[in-house]
Amino acid sequence: MFAHNKRLQYSVHVSECNPALANLMLEQFGGPQGELAAAMRYFTQALAEDDPGRKDMLLDIATEELSHLEVIGSIVGMLNKGAKGQLAEAVDEEAELFRSLQGAGNSSHVTQVLYGGGPALTNSGGQLWTAGYIDSIGEPTADLRSNIAAEARAKIVYERLINVTADPGVKDALGFLMTREMSHQKSFEKALYAIEPNFPPGKNPGKPEFADLYANTSQGDGDMRGSWNSDDNFNFVSDREQLLAMDGGDGLATTKLSAKEKSTLKAMAKRTQSNPDLDPETGAELGMAGNGKPKPSKRPSPPSSSKRH
Amino acid sequence: MFAHNKRLQYSVHVSECNPALANLMLEQFGGPQGELAAAMRYFTQALAEDDPGRKDMLLDIATEELSHLEVIGSIVGMLNKGAKGQLAEAVDEEAELFRSLQGAGNSSHVTQVLYGGGPALTNSGGQLWTAGYIDSIGEPTADLRSNIAAEARAKIVYERLINVTADPGVKDALGFLMTREMSHQKSFEKALYAIEPNFPPGKNPGKPEFADLYANTSQGDGDMRGSWNSDDNFNFVSDREQLLAMDGGDGLATTKLSAKEKSTLKAMAKRTQSNPDLDPETGAELGMAGNGKPKPSKRPSPPSSSKRH
Amino acid sequence: MFAHNKRLQYSVHVSECNPALANLMLEQFGGPQGELAAAMRYFTQALAEDDPGRKDMLLDIATEELSHLEVIGSIVGMLNKGAKGQLAEAVDEEAELFRSLQGAGNSSHVTQVLYGGGPALTNSGGQLWTAGYIDSIGEPTADLRSNIAAEARAKIVYERLINVTADPGVKDALGFLMTREMSHQKSFEKALYAIEPNFPPGKNPGKPEFADLYANTSQGDGDMRGSWNSDDNFNFVSDREQLLAMDGGDGLATTKLSAKEKSTLKAMAKRTQSNPDLDPETGAELGMAGNGKPKPSKRPSPPSSSKRH
Amino acid sequence: MFAHNKRLQYSVHVSECNPALANLMLEQFGGPQGELAAAMRYFTQALAEDDPGRKDMLLDIATEELSHLEVIGSIVGMLNKGAKGQLAEAVDEEAELFRSLQGAGNSSHVTQVLYGGGPALTNSGGQLWTAGYIDSIGEPTADLRSNIAAEARAKIVYERLINVTADPGVKDALGFLMTREMSHQKSFEKALYAIEPNFPPGKNPGKPEFADLYANTSQGDGDMRGSWNSDDNFNFVSDREQLLAMDGGDGLATTKLSAKEKSTLKAMAKRTQSNPDLDPETGAELGMAGNGKPKPSKRPSPPSSSKRH
Amino acid sequence: MFAHNKRLQYSVHVSECNPALANLMLEQFGGPQGELAAAMRYFTQALAEDDPGRKDMLLDIATEELSHLEVIGSIVGMLNKGAKGQLAEAVDEEAELFRSLQGAGNSSHVTQVLYGGGPALTNSGGQLWTAGYIDSIGEPTADLRSNIAAEARAKIVYERLINVTADPGVKDALGFLMTREMSHQKSFEKALYAIEPNFPPGKNPGKPEFADLYANTSQGDGDMRGSWNSDDNFNFVSDREQLLAMDGGDGLATTKLSAKEKSTLKAMAKRTQSNPDLDPETGAELGMAGNGKPKPSKRPSPPSSSKRH
Amino acid sequence: MFAHNKRLQYSVHVSECNPALANLMLEQFGGPQGELAAAMRYFTQALAEDDPGRKDMLLDIATEELSHLEVIGSIVGMLNKGAKGQLAEAVDEEAELFRSLQGAGNSSHVTQVLYGGGPALTNSGGQLWTAGYIDSIGEPTADLRSNIAAEARAKIVYERLINVTADPGVKDALGFLMTREMSHQKSFEKALYAIEPNFPPGKNPGKPEFADLYANTSQGDGDMRGSWNSDDNFNFVSDREQLLAMDGGDGLATTKLSAKEKSTLKAMAKRTQSNPDLDPETGAELGMAGNGKPKPSKRPSPPSSSKRH
């Protein structure tokens, strides 16, 4: 069960209202690398987890991410606070309010008009948050790697936001949030490696003949070798013929069909064949030159008026 | 530039048509862990990459994932081949076709009716593919971790599909595709660790006082200690007061406001206050008991007919 | 700041695993009327709220909804627990696992294969949760009405789930969750009516001449009168001419154009005119009858083989 | 059946083209509180409605909302009319057109380039309209409350648009549209309260012991009492122990498992345990310091060139 | 302005309730080829159209499509009518209702539980309708082709639905709707060819040297020649070298950089290089074998209890 | 199987970095008319296609579209190259970086902050790519028409991008891409007309009595006649009575119900009737005037402090 205390995990003291900056901050509120995505990624994993250690850790971190959602949402709220009142009370002239919306910076008109300046579950461009951002699949050696990656991405987005924020209070809180992602990444790394073995993920060992193959499918000037495709680590194959039908078969897709399926497919094929022996006139050719014949004037009334019905 | 050869990277020989199995296979065609997501994740990274080694590797693997998209899509096409003809030519009675659609298994009616049995860019439940599945952010120490995690997830989904597939030809091709994900994971691991250092991701070192903190935010029976939150590795904090306002401040969110912003906000607050000193009657209370008074019968005609206009 | 206790707000004791029922339960986990939508609706409002009473109430209820998300997610986890192990460990034959996936009921194959049986942020049909479900707009007389409506809808969906659930433990927990929605609705009603006046919402009083008009735009057999369109309460207008251009104007859409805009538009109009004086042959007509002429046999080789390149 | 008259329900006379203002107006064309959402909310309800009075009212209002969609869409079309011709005919220099796109205000480049200046079913930020905006669930005491709330929200968004619009013709038409939302809200209120009783929504009365409970889950400085949580109206509970496991049980989630389910889960648990007794080295630690050993120089050629393949 | 008459454009007389068939019918209510998509495609074009003939035609057909939306939605409502009452009044036992939901066919549980059996703006698989289905771009020679194609697709989906529908009343109404799509296609064809010329679409004639080129990018067994790539109609190029850098240039992507941009990029490249001269140990290798050292037993208490905090 | 060569199909030489222009270019990378949508439209058709000629053509063009995706993505990458380094290395002051993000033009902040300047699978407004853009349905006479229309739309969007691009290198590459769309359209036209007959699409001939009907559903000033609704080509019906219930029936929607269904529906109707004979007080009326009575002062402490809990 969750409980809440009205004090934040980190104080937010904003120097002045700035709706354009508020909009940028939405990236970590309702964006793909943001705090709701983080909280829900770990929370959904925790609910399905049977391992007591991981379950506890996932709940700890999910709960903290909710507190971070509150911090970043409070930053948005503070940066928008002045503009919110101006628009709701409409004490200024319309043209001035319009200019302030447009001049406030990219997209802030959306959050002002639609959300009244409140923090919205969108990214900084207005894209609605979607559960497609969450990649939990219920297997710990995969999910922990997803979590490690998610924390790394979130760290980078915070770093970028810090790089463009001049307000010291906002910058300070962003620094806290960014650092916590680093700490979470470390916990997830520990939990992953405490599963032995954890590679390959899952239970099925795969087909050994393809496990160390490196397929050099992009060729031409720019080919490089390194540990990721070196002969020490991989069977490096450049010959494209070798890469075709690697099962040694015909490289075709086939299926067995019943007699009825066969005859139906044959009927369909016949009905819908694009006949290679024809050179038909097409709509494009019709469209290239005027083909319309003037309409026979069945009606005695002058064309211009007869068209009006 | 891309080129294509009509032979597949792995032969697909399906034993019999099976639209329900076809639908499951869509998970790796147009699902979040599927081959289009993989190909586009690496391809978008490659286009923005300046490091020649990584660029080459990303193009190699992106290109191979497109070939995998072709293999899994061909499996779908073969499994649906018979049903496609039956529906298009409609040689059976409607009721029989309806039963075959419904009996074919979950959701196969969608792909039959809407996509005519062709492989659709949806997951196995019909959810349209979205670029929200792609988490490239243009920083290699984050993106390579995302790629490692993505390959791990894809490996697991293939393993699950193998576990429920009895058709030997489909199972064989799935085994190939699964194994290749393991190989790709290894390449991405090598490329990540060939960046020194790669942790923390990015350039900003963070605030040291929060980097090793573990916040025990979920408490109660079930708390566990392990390397992910051990005293050896973390500063483990359970005291909730300590976790509030960790900057040592007031834990509030504030912003500086101009005089005009202040007065406008005050006007808005006054206009929209929920007054705690009142105990108003509400819509719910109105709704709990009949409050409607019979309408004054202005019209002499009997009510039942007078309502018809 | 949020804190968490590992005990649930309401105990969940499931009688037996049932993946098909688990899937239905997702409706209130990741569906539009579900607990995440509720929690986020109130939480985003709370962050932007300046009125202390409403802010406190919104935080109280948002926090409780998170606890409800945990309860309903735990129900999903328990109902799927057995199936999760079966698929991951794959101790059964493929065909049997396939049958159990398909037989388990509608769509449970998606959550099994994709999410490994964990609770997913989708509705019961697999549709990904989207922030489009959240309708907070930052004005209390509108938002509180939205909250009242949202609680009413959630109450109904729980009622429907209860009606189809035979498992007594699940039914009991659903009954608790349903009742809490009723309680929340009452709080939101009180808070709305504690704003005086709260109708019309917002500050702008509107154009009085249109405020009590009822437009009888759907006519024919089935027209009815009641308090919602009665002469006592409304100015009921059935005459369609009266409903056209209610400003008393021409009912047209016009704009002033600069000379340059005018001339450019004229050029565009001329270039793209669909000429009413022509009766052109079209692609459809071409398509109705064979029009393809056999291709001149430039190549001496027989057509069937010459087509292969 | 629908019929259409080419005159608008309200005349639209725009003073001058203004693509940035056009974009703002899209909020009520293809945004969540816009006219398509309104029309479809009521229309889908009407089709499923068996009560003759409500069915008639829903059809009346749905039809009027379609006419409003036409009015707001015509505003967009008029505001974009000049820009549309300029871009299509390209009589200006590229750099000038580029500047006009960028300078025209936020996001208008999207509607210009992608939609050619026509009204698009997006909100003012370009987010595609989605049926997730529609919350009809087929129960009148819930749906009518949803409709009341939707009208309230739409009224507010129109008010905000009016506040930022200086063009008198646009302002006038927006005022009409806003006022009609107020009138619709009144009709929906009447229809709701003409159902007796209408609270609680639906048929199931809920569990009385939880119906008047107020859970004070957010505590700390800022707690407030008012009619929404007063002792007169609610059983106000602050003690967190009391809020845990309110059924009086253990607060756990459990399920009964068959012997086979148990043994499979045990096998999975063992395979995937994060062992708390280990302190493993992790990828993050590898990444903190250089760990790469120089590759053994198997090839005599100098490294820099040998890497080129 | 729109008006409505309560009689349908085509009578709907359903033989018996059938929720599974209702769900299939949603494909043309809220699916991509459905009537809402059709109505909105033409309506958005009409609003931006300046050509009087096309504007009139688009309004005629858009209005008719709304009437079709009503017909298909009424079919859904009738097919679900019985199930709706059963679920709302819950006169049956839960287990029986559960079975009827599951047995009713794929996905009907979603529409029952979430939408109460009303017609939902989803496709037959529950995917929410999105404005991404609408491809209007505001250029008539493109939009009319889009409309022609959309009518062709809608015709096919109706044909498929007819093929699986045994209910004579439903089949009859579907036949009407299907036929109307054919008629609309003919109108759009006429309007397209009444623009002279209409190919290529738009104003810019393109680069002549690439206009008749056919790039044989997919090779291998299965290459075919026909009018779509014949020497008569195209310059057929198979040589892959010829297809690279068709401008005759270097085939590279380059940009000019300022000195500052250059130095910053150099710094970034250095910081993030994947060094090809190293063969680092990776996380995958750590994960392949146990690497965790037992934790030093700082605490004397037995491990099992010491882990509980 | 796909192969890749690192040289582009067309060289990209950008004159200077320009993030705002980069963002516009995204329209054809991840937008609805962009190259990914094109490639996937043809590729999914190819996989399901049995006709050898069409399959070959679809693979040829799909493969070329992937190469175009690479070209347009490389343009984006080059235009963003300088900005990417500036943000990642953060050598400038925050305020300056913020201004450059905002000044760079609409929405470029999103791609900078979220994607690090890499090409993202979004349109130029940040909308995530969705498979809803792809309209393949597996019937060649429909799919080829869809392809013809898609090429026409893509041609127009390229034309618009060319019209606003002053950079000669970008303009040149765009011209190539645009021209290729024209060429593809011609191939699709040939393949369509090589199917004889191809109209009406599919197999079912429709109901002849409705095939040539033109329904004049939009009336009033502005009605026009042309070949698309002429008496020569259509049976033009303006009489609205004639357009109602065109089957000659009652225009109603009905279904047969079992006795149990009937009684349940009756119970539901009674429970949820909006009674037309009542004129109830509503929430709106409560909200219009103050109705709250002061709360009884149970507590002796002064109200202002007693509210704090």
From TrEMBL, chains A, B, C, D, E, F:
It comes from the Bacteria. Residues 202-229, 261-309 are annotated as: Disordered. Belongs to the manganese catalase family. This is Manganese catalase family protein.
